[in-house]
């Protein structure tokens, strides 16, 4: 066998389509690719490296002979089929929330905590998209100057809510421009009681509200950041984190305003810029004199996280602010998943 046999679960979805492209471009040796989805999508034809592949229904037997399974079909699908894949010898990289907070499952961003891969027992979780880009930007700063506190406000793209939400954005935008009433059926949360237009609007709700007033998206950012950056401890007190997550009418790429406090009193804007300029997965775009800063439109289609607008907080010592942007469908989902697989291979943790 010349390479790995790979299965992509949720191949017909928005992230699944990008997973296919990332596997086409991967440095992993790939022997074969199997595309899996629900029974509704079975029989569809999708391209892989220019060849037509037929989408198959996901069943436990789908994973016979599979070495690597990339999941992005919803948490319930992952909970049902990921253990079946592992039982049949596959290593699973899961892009849902199903296993992220499981203490036995590593939650991995390769630029930040690659070593956590050694702890896997067949399943590795891919973090939330908004968490991924933030920790990629923060990790070089943490290494250079230490990190005490993070306060993040997100400006998240509609694609994070799926293809139906993107269509709703387009339909609402057209209705608004035509002077017609906008109809909302999905956002902010498809299963919640009320729905509001996203076109020409900002919705300070992503996912459902918890009892403490935070949304579950905010809860995820807080605890995922701790688990990734604090050795697997989702409740660590080593870094204080809080978040406000907002959906805005942008199709692709999340933007974030990040306030952070460091431990080193000698930290400077120049020092932070220097640390970011050489960090893997980071592109520094920070030239305010020439209006150079990260933008969602420019980040779309890139695997990198773009960082700029780094400046000191004028009221608090050892505190700074920055702006980061990344394609939520690539680095925030499909690319981070395939990147995890590449690092598993590099470390000898994907066995042929």
Automatic annotation (TrEMBL):
Going by the record, the broad EC class of this enzyme is: oxidoreductase
Assigned keywords, A-Z: Amino-acid biosynthesis, Diaminopimelate biosynthesis, Lysine biosynthesis, Methionine biosynthesis, NADP, Oxidoreductase, Threonine biosynthesis
Could you say which EC number(s) this protein's record lists? 1.2.1.11
Name the positions where phosphate binds: 100
Which residues carry out catalysis? 129, 254
Q: Which reaction does it catalyse?
A: L-aspartate 4-semialdehyde + phosphate + NADP(+) = 4-phospho-L-aspartate + NADPH + H(+)
Q: Does the keyword NADP apply?
A: yes
Which Gene3D superfamilies does the UniProt entry name for this protein? Answer: Dihydrodipicolinate Reductase, domain 2, NAD(P)-binding Rossmann-like Domain
- What GO molecular functions are on record for this protein? aspartate-semialdehyde dehydrogenase activity
PANTHER family assigned: ASPARTATE-SEMIALDEHYDE DEHYDROGENASE (PTHR46278:SF2), DEHYDROGENASE, PUTATIVE-RELATED (PTHR46278)
Q: Which family does it belong to?
A: Belongs to the aspartate-semialdehyde dehydrogenase family.
Subunit relationships:
Homodimer.
Among NCBIfam families, the record links this protein to: asd_B, PRK14874.1
Protein name according to UniProt: Aspartate-semialdehyde dehydrogenase
Q: What's the source species for this entry?
A: Lactiplantibacillus daoliensis
């Amino acid at each position: 066998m010349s390479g790995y046999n790979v299965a992509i679960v949720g191949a017909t979805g928005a992230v699944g389509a990008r997973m296919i492209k990332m596997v086409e471009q991967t440095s992993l040796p790939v022997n074969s690719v199997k595309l899996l989805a629900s029974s509704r999508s079975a029989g569809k034809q999708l391209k892989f490296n220019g060849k037509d592949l037929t989408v198959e229904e996901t069943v436990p037997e789908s994973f016979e002979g599979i070495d690597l399974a990339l999941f992005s079909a919803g948490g319930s699908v992952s909970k049902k089929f990921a253990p079946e894949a592992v039982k049949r010898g596959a290593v699973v990289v899961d892009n849902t929330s199903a296993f992220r907070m499981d203490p036995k499952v590593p939650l991995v961003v390769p630029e930040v905590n690659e070593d956590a891969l050694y702890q896997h027992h067949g399943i590795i979780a891919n973090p939330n998209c908004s968490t991924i880009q933030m920790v990629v930007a923060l990790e070089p700063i943490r290494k250079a100057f230490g990190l005490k506190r993070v306060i993040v406000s997100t400006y998240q793209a509609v694609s994070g809510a799926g293809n139906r939400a993107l269509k709703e954005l387009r339909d609402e935008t057209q209705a608004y421009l035509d002077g017609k009433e906008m109809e909302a059926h999905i956002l902010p949360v498809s299963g919640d009681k009320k729905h509001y237009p996203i076109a020409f609007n900002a919705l300070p709700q992503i996912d459902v509200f918890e009892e403490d007033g935070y949304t579950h998206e905010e809860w995820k950012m807080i605890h995922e950041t701790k688990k990734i950056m604090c050795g697997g401890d989702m409740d660590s007190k080593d870094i204080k984190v809080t978040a406000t997550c907002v959906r805005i009418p942008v199709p692709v790429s999340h933007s974030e305003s990040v306030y952070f406090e460091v431990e080193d009193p000698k930290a400077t804007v120049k020092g932070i810029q220097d640390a970011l300029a050489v960090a893997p997965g980071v592109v520094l775009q920070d030239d305010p004199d020439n209006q150079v800063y990260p933008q969602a439109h420019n980040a779309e289609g890139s695997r990198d996280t773009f960082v700029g607008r780094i400046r000191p907080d004028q009221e608090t010592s050892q505190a700074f602010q920055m702006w980061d942007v990344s394609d939520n469908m690539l680095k925030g989902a499909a690319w981070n998943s395939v990147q995890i697989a590449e690092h598993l291979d590099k470390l000898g943790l994907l066995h042929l």
